[in-house]
Amino acid sequence: LRLQRPWSVCKSFLLLTVFLGGQVHAAQEPVMRVLVLDAKQLRFRADGDRPLLVSGLGSTNKRVSTLKIRQKNGQFALAINRSSSRWSNLSPRTELKIKSKDPRGIWLGKRRYRGELRVLIRGDRLKVVNHLGVENYLVSVVGSEMPKSWPMDALKAQAVAARTYALQQLGKKDDYDINSTEASQVYLGVEAETKRTKKAVAGTRSLVLVHKGSLINAVFHSSSGGRTEASGSVWKKQLPYLVSVPDHDQHSPSYNWEMQFDPYQLEAAFAEVGGLKRVQVISTSATGRVLLARVQGPKGEIKLTGKELRSRLGLKSTLV
C-alpha cells in the first residue's frame, strides 16, 4: 500500500476573533486536572533535601523522600522512604495528595510536575492526576506541542488554542479534565518549559477563542496534507467555525508519507478475511479522505470505515 498525506482534524481558529476577558487573578485562575499516569505501579521521589508532603495516610501529613505503590497479593500496597520490607496495604478508597515546596517540581518516574499530584485507585489501576493552574499548565503544553525555537507569534497562537481547548474540557470527567497525551494535548511537565514558552503564555494571559460568547472546540493538528477536513465529516456535528480550508503545509515532513506491510501484518490486521488481497474505496469526503472501504481477502470481504481502516493498519491518516 502506498499511503500519502496525513489525516487532519480541521482547524480554522486563525480566522476567528480573539476576545480578551477580564484579567484573571491568581486566586481565580482555573485549576486543571491532568491525567499524567495510568499504571499498575508508580514511584515518587523528592529531589535533594526537600521532602514530599503526603496526605491521605493518616490524620497528619507525612514527610517522605520516596513513595512506591505496587500490586501485592491482589491489592495495592505502599512503601515509603526506601523501605523494601515494610509494605502496607491501601484501601480501594485511598486518595493520596502529594505536594512539595521544591520549585523544581515533583518527580514521578522520569518526569517532574508542578502543583499537586493526586493518586487514585480505580479497580486494578492507579491514576495520577496533576492539579495545577491553567497558566502553569500551558507553559509546558506549548513546549510539548510545538518546537520551542519557532517564532514567538507561533508560540502565542499555540498558547491561545491550547488554553481554549483546555478550558473547554473542564468538568467533563469525574477524576480528571484532560489527558497528557495526544488524546487531548501533550503535557510533558517541567522539562518542556522554557523562557520562550513562559513568555508566550504570559503574553496571551486570559486570551481564548469564542464563537457567539462560548469557548470553541479548539482542536489542532501538525499537518493536514494541504486541506483541513470539515468537522461534520469527522464527528456527528458540523460546527460553523470548523470548516474545510486550504492549508499551506507542503513543507511539513508529514505532508507526504509511506508505510509498507508484510503478509503476516496484513493477516493479523484482517484476520476475519484471512489477510488482504484488495482494498476498494467506496466513498470519500470532499477532501478525498476515505469514509468507507471494502477489504477483500482470501476468506471473503468486509466493509470498514476510514477510521477503522486507519486504526487497523496504524495509518497516520485516512487521506490515502
Present the secondary structure layout.
Elements: E1 18-20, E2 31-39, E3 42-45, E4 52-55, E5 62-64, E6 66-72, E7 75-80, E8 88-89, E9 95-99, E10 106-108, E11 111-113, E12 116-122, E13 125-133, H1 134-145, H2 152-168, E14 178-179, H3 195-202, E15 207-211, E16 214-215, H4 231-234, H5 263-269, E17 278-284, E18 290-297, E19 300-305, H6 306-313
Parallel strand pairs: 2-14
Antiparallel strand pairs: 1-15, 2-13, 3-6, 3-10, 4-5, 4-9, 6-7, 7-8, 9-12, 10-11, 12-13, 15-16, 17-18, 18-19
What does this structure look like?
The protein has 320 residues and is α+β, with helices and mostly antiparallel strands. It is 18% helix and 30% strand. The chain has 6 helices and 19 strands. It has helices at 134-145, 152-168, 195-202, 231-234, 263-269, 306-313, and strands at residues 18-20, 31-39, 42-45, 52-55, 62-64, 66-72, 75-80, 88-89, 95-99, 106-108, 111-113, 116-122, 125-133, 178-179, 207-211, 214-215, 278-284, 290-297, 300-305. The strands form 4 sheets. It has a 7-stranded mixed sheet with strand order 5-4-9-12-13-2-14. Strand 17 (278-284) and strand 18 form a beta hairpin. Helix 1 crosses helix 3 (195-202). The longest helix is centred in the middle third of the chain and has 17 residues, at 152-168. The radius of gyration is 23 Å and the shape is globular. The protein starts with 17 loop residues before the first strand and ends in a 7-residue tail after the last helix. 32% of the residues are buried. Residues 1-27 have low confidence and may be disordered.
